[in-house]
Design goal:
binds adenosine-5'-triphosphate, alpha/beta, Rossmann fold, binds magnesium ion, 6 strands, 204 residues, globular
Length: 204
């Protein structure tokens, strides 16, 4: 099962998922020759206590709608179905159980997320299980990121790959704000996601 496979994991709140996430996952898939990318919407994110995160079923369904037309993309419920806060280390251990030790796991994240991975639960174990791909995102200072990568290397002896993603300055925060203000989110999210948001009255 899964001999020598290369799997990308794209974790996120996806509140909502947008083209920034999708482009990043697709470019990581191609550049790192991944067999597939699994999107893992967080259940209860320990990092986002500053605003009320949308119900996980809505976020899961939007992620499924957005990834449906890419045969190399999948969505996992493992964090949503797990109790308590979502920690990446638990997710990765579950992935190892599912795909076996011969599979290489790549965790795809934005540069902003990489800046605080040293605060993540059991980060040493996380870095032992997977390889990080840090996507550079407009507005994030590359120097700060490079310092952080050196620190990770010094502390844990691990390299983090950098991936320059086609510049898209889209964020979920901005999309939520736009919806709230009654502005258009066309061309920022897939059409199905836009319709889902309107139909369910999210972010009002
Ligand atoms: P929020 O504004 O609520 O923080 P977000 O747009 O950052 O939302 P998340 O769900 O927090 O989306 O992000 C999931 C992952 O995708 C993180 O690793 C984040 O860094 C990355 N990411 C988010 N937006 C982009 C983008 N436009 N380009 C590249 N990576 C992104
Ligand atoms: Mg974010």
């Amino acid at each position: 099962m899964g001999i020598g496979k290369r799997i990308g994991i794209m974790g996120g709140t996806f509140d909502p998922i947008h083209f920034g996430h999708l482009v990043t996952a697709e470019e990581a898939r191609i550049n790192f020759e991944l067999d597939k990318v699994i999107f893992v919407p967080t259940g209860k994110p320990p990092h986002k206590k500053d605003y009320e995160v949308t119900d996980s079923e809505h976020r899961y369904l939007m992620t499924a709608l957005a990834t449906n037309n890419n045969p190399f993309f999948e969505v996992s419920r493992i964090e949503i179905d797990r109790k308590g806060y979502s920690y990446t280390v638990d997710t990765l251990n579950q992935m190892v159980q599912i795909y076996g030790k011969d599979t290489s796991l790549f965790f795809i994240s934005g540069a902003d997320a990489v800046l605080d991975i040293l605060t993540w639960k059991n980060i040493k174990e996380v870095l032992d299980i997977c390889t990080f791909i840090a996507a550079t995102r407009p507005g994030y200072p590359i120097n700060k990121l490079k310092d952080k990568l050196e620190e990770i290397k010094r502390l844990y002896g691990k390299d983090v790959y950098l991936l320059e993603v086609t510049a898209i300055a889209i964020s979920s925060t901005d999309i939520r704000r736009k919806v709230k203000e009654g502005r258009s989110i066309k061309y920022l999210v897939p059409e199905g996601v836009e319709k889902y948001i309107l139909k369910n009255g999210l972010y009002r």
